[in-house]
């Protein structure tokens, strides 16, 4: 239940950021050509949303297996060795997160201390950048979860996103359409008639 | 010493199966900690800079979003209908039409495997029914599908532009002629094979039907006109053009074609409905569809899928920038360049080395990862040898196309195996003759820079620079 | 081991700023051998202009020279230099900066942990556009690219133009495709960034100044021995003087090179036309007088004498 809600919130948050970035840049073009004006905070906000999108998204990507990697070699190994290297890789990922979390904490503390604001929006800079710390904390949580799954044999690796597999979804959708279309030979030209 | 540490850690992490983004980031941080005085805080600052100071990079998520809306089965079908109506009546026409359909789909999608899946699913079965050998059909599609990253808009080109700070719009223009050329080469080869193998032709459907299928396909194809037109017509920068493209793609797929989203199944004109009534009803329904899209599961899935791909790519890019930062401050490409110049290796010799390196890398890795690791190393060397940055970019993209067809990691091979239900060996054999054509094409692209440079330079000339 | 000074800047080595930094590294190598070593990182190799001050506060960069507009979130007073038509020429700018008030302003960043060490010139700003500009009415409704700066935004709004913030990397394309009508910059930037190739008209407006401030972090600067600090300041002053001389010469040369290229027509402003601009833009002074300080504005104006 709770897990489901968290997933929905995460997905809504990331989708919202992507759509908002797109619409904000689109609005800038419309303003410039339609109304001969600009949005003076648009650029700063768009770039900030991009940072939140990537730094938060990294942990969501681990959760749903959206990252890519080279797993052809570990997959050739016997399953025990495979598990060992996967766990080692997760430990190294956690070290990566730890180093960045530590660095981000110092960086943010310094920014909070000097207390400057963003260029175009009245928001303290450290607050706008707090995703650095939050993002790496979430990344650690996701790697710990993944590590636990590997230990309990629920998972055997990072489950990298597979562009080929995703494209196959498209193929399946089309095969579905094809078989439905068979009885109606004119179905391909629906738009043609309208 | 520094160079060795950087690359050993990178490859060890990568082959252990770590996400490439983190392998890049960890090897960079480790190298910095071991060999320089930079603080972890400043490395974090660098990462934040990489995610928040590169406006041009935003073109990547925007194009991924537009491609997600338009890479649907419905769009593929419309493009195939138009392609069959236009070249199907030539001998070997169905195969040529498949190539044309791949080229057209490539022009709305930034991805090659998506092109193979979308076009291949329909046309391979169709070709087999019309009497083509299945291996012939599969080989043609797997190869023509690689055009997805050469014909603009192309995600791989944007990644190259991000890694080297070359203009993305010039890269797009540069890919145009090579893309048409490769499509042309494939079609000529098909025509020759069709004469030898006595392959069939389709009946010509008539000019009226051709015009009709063209108009229907145009909705999707307008995307490339909007993208290239708005960049070169002075409306927008590449990033802005990408945002416009994403909004357009939503409008066409949800409100126009109605393949997905809240208007799915709603006809433009009902039986016996007057034109004025239909216009009014459609307008109202479209307005109502805008807020309904927010909650519609299909629209949300498209956006979420685009988000996943985008955040994966942008996270790799951010870490790759850290990696490139270590390369520059340690002057690693500079040292390699000096060694190469010292050997007296000429530009053409260097390009052979580049091609071999990229072809090997293409066996194991995906295009964007290869580009992000190799471009920062190769680019400064190429500059020193007087190779045009745009030309180098197109060479790299064509190499990436070939990499999609080489085992063990070859995305187009996987998809082709998936849609035909055959094993990998069969698919590899089917692709082989066409792969040779692609290698020949790579030689042409490598040693005739004008193929890539003609269009961007011509456009500059038109504008009087 | 010698004390390491990382000097990070964002331009090429052959520009006035680049040459100033190289000169400083050379002087320090001669005068403080084994004690201090200056490493110059050009072309944003280390950090871009937006992040370099933060990196300095973290102790990872010791010196940088960002444009004065980049300090607007660190102190209000340096916005003075963005005010339009405040200085009549570079000589006035120089008089003000080397005078007591200008030198006092170098300390305005202290509360944020930064120390100004000197001003480095780029030059007076000119207006370039796709249409000829003579009087304020010519820019009404036109879109101009500006650096992020509240004063510059107000300056263009005062003449009914539309200021747009766009990253420097996209400016050329946007000008080329006429998505933006014009921009303001110094002769040397207009020349080196090839803006004159895509902007058929450049008005010699000298309406503002684009200078840099060489800064260091207070923590680093105060940690130095007195004699080393004094020697460094002396070497820096000499390097800045050297860089300023090159900048002045370069502004002349680049202006001539643009005229010779015939790609762009250089328009001169008559005193009457100039007066119209001053009338239109002067309200901006009042708008920012509270933040900057009227006394600073008066002192700057006095340097025109
Ligand atoms: Na494409
Ligand atoms: Na491959």
Structure write-up:
Chain B: Its main location: membrane. Chain B: Residues 7-451 form the TRAP C4-dicarboxylate transport system permease DctM subunit domain. Chain B: It is a multi-pass membrane protein. Chain B: This is TRAP transporter large permease subunit. Chain B: Keywords: Cell inner membrane, Cell membrane, Membrane, Transmembrane, Transmembrane helix, Transport. The complex is a heterotrimer of chains A (194), B (465) and C (305). Chain A has helices at residues 2-34, 42-64, 79-114, 125-128, 131-151, 163-181, 190-193. The longest helix of chain A is centred in the middle third of the chain and has 36 residues, at 79-114. Chain A has 194 residues and is mainly α. Residues 182-194 of chain A have low confidence and may be disordered. Chain B is globular and about 80 Å long. Chain B has 465 residues and is mainly α. In chain C, helix 5 (150-158) links the parallel strand 5 and strand 6. The model of chain C has no long low-confidence stretch (mean pLDDT 92). Chains A and B meet through helix 1, helix 2, helix 3 and helix 6 of A and helix 1, helix 2, helix 3, helix 4 and helix 5 of B. The complex binds sodium ion (2 copies).
Main features:
heterotrimer, A: 194 residues, mainly alpha, flat, disordered C terminus, B: 465 residues, 21 helices, 0% strand, binds sodium ion
